[in-house]
Design goal:
The structure is a single chain. The chain is α+β, with helices and mostly antiparallel strands and 412 residues long. The protein has a single domain (6-405), classed as Cytochrome P450 (Cytochrome p450, Orthogonal Bundle). Helices cover 48% and strands 8% of the residues. It contains 16 helices and nine strands. It has helices at residues 6-17, 20-24, 27-36, 56-64, 102-110, 116-138, 146-150, 152-162, 169-179, 186-208, 214-219, 229-260, 262-270, 275-285, 318-321, 355-372; strands at residues 39-41, 50-53, 68-69, 295-297, 301-303, 306-308, 313-316, 373-378, 401-405. The strands form three sheets. The chain has a five-stranded mixed β-sheet. Strands 5-6 form a two-stranded antiparallel sheet. It has a two-stranded antiparallel sheet with strand order 8-9. The chain starts with 5 loop residues before the first helix and ends in a 7-residue tail after the last strand.
Length: 412
């Protein structure tokens, strides 16, 4: 008889987390893990020890614990370790990769771009873009709502916010998708290098000829505590990556949910003021970030009743937390108007700065479709849908649908 060791169990779990079935439907496995404990070893070969954190309370604990750092070197490791089990040697430091007080300073300098007033001011242009993209995609015989719509709205909005010319939007979209890829390779390194160089040149151009965009404002800041050039590059990098990929996944998940729930589609079409409420439940049920970015234990500690050692990499499953039955009644069901707070945008000091922008964009995009479409359903079997790979993002890659346009005559 062979007895499995913790290392064997960790390797087995890692294989499950990297399997195609997990990408399609991560929630069954995550539920089992949540019900069996707060932390689970999932060891990638050749990398520091990892633990997957599941459950609502454990998630909130890790995301606020001062003994947990974004910097692997603070935990006695080499810098740059990623959840994929490789080291990132070409990455850019930015707000999401540092701890307070550095994080506090950087966040304060850019928070002014995401005030309620700023988000409100962006709504008319977002509606214009969403309407244009919706008209374009609905003119297709079988509309494809991710590449043709859900991804186009956020890349356009964040690029306009930063002052990036429209001719470069597609290149930024490509670079963003490579950078969040779980596979470290030539394309990923090329995307990093290209984006870093492009942003450095763009910042210099904004100083010479500023516009009305956020990057011009940050580059022209004369305060003593202003961002340095490397910090500016890092900030623009973060806003582009986070502002595009996560929001595209959110819009895609919402549209998939609506295609699978015709009664909900009909209800929201009749009461569009409820769309922001529905967005919150889509965030909880199928949030765009499967696992929060890497964190590291800087000293020995307990998570729940599981011992954690200094140097352990902690992977916080936001998806597991948001379907924890100890927190949410009937967690796998869509309930319009749930009051319990989700953690789809994270928790603690690294709570997503762009959450208000993402909520606004998703609301505007969904509303644009509701205004134009009488009914919506999948054009393929759900089992045929392709999902984003890796542990970081959760999102459908293509969403072909059949639609009946608003105002279309009834079929004979």
């Amino acid at each position: 008889m062979t007895t499995s060791t913790p290392d064997d169990q960790g390797s087995s779990l890692r294989a499950e987390l990297e399997g195609a079935g997990f990408q399609t439907d991560p929630h069954a496995l995550l539920r089992q893990l949540t019900e069996s404990g707060a932390a689970h070893r999932c060891e990638p070969a050749g990398a520091p020890p990892q633990l997957l954190i599941t459950g609502y309370e454990a998630t909130r604990q890790v995301l606020t614990d001062p003994r947990v750092s974004k910097r692997s070197e603070r935990a006695g490791l080499e810098p740059g370790w990623l959840m994929s089990g490789v080291r990132d040697e070409v990455g850019i430091d930015y707000m999401l990769t540092v701890d307070p007080p550095d994080h506090t300073r950087l966040r304060k300098l850019v928070t002014r771009a995401f005030t309620p007033q700023k988000i409100e001011a962006l709504q008319p242009r977002t509606r214009e873009l969403a309407g244009r993209f919706a008209d374009d995609v609905l003119a297709q015989g079988t509309p494809e709502l991710v590449d043709g719509f859900a991804a186009r709205v956020p890349i356009a909005v964040i690029c306009e916010l930063l002052g990036i010319p429209p001719d470069d939007w597609d290149r930024f979209r490509w670079a963003s998708e490579q950078i969040v890829s779980p596979v470290a390779g030539r394309d990923r390194e090329e995307a990093y290098v290209w984006m870093q160089g492009y942003l450095a040149e763009l910042i210099a151009a904004k100083r010479a000829d500023p516009g009305q965009d956020l990057l011009s404002a940050l580059a022209g800041d004369t305060d003593e505590d202003r961002l340095t050039d490397p910090e500016l590059v890092g900030m623009a990098f973060l806003l582009l990556i986070a502002g595009y990929e996560t929001t595209a996944n959110l819009i895609g998940a919402a549209l998939l949910g609506l295609a699978q729930q015709p009664d909900l589609f009909k209800a929201l079409r009749a009461a569009p003021a409820q769309v922001p409420v529905a967005v919150e439940e889509f965030l909880r049920l199928d949030g765009p970030v499967l696992t929060a970015t890497e964190r590291f234990a800087t000293e020995d500690m307990l998570i729940g009743d599981v011992p954690v050692r200094r140097g352990d990499m902690l992977l916080v499953s936001l998806a597991a937390a948001d379907r924890d039955p100890a927190r949410f009644e009937e967690p796998d069901s869509f309930r319009l108007g749930r009051s319990a707070g989700h953690v789809a945008f994270g928790h603690g000091v690294h709570h997503c700065l762009g959450a208000p922008l993402a909520r606004m964009e998703a609301t505007v995009a969904i509303t644009a479709l509701l205004e134009r479409v009488e009914s919506l359903e999948l054009a393929v079997d759900a089992a045929e849908l392709e999902w984003a790979p890796g542990l970081l993002m959760h999102g459908v890659r293509r969403l072909p649908v059949s639609v009946v346009l608003a105002g279309s005559p009834d079929p004979a």
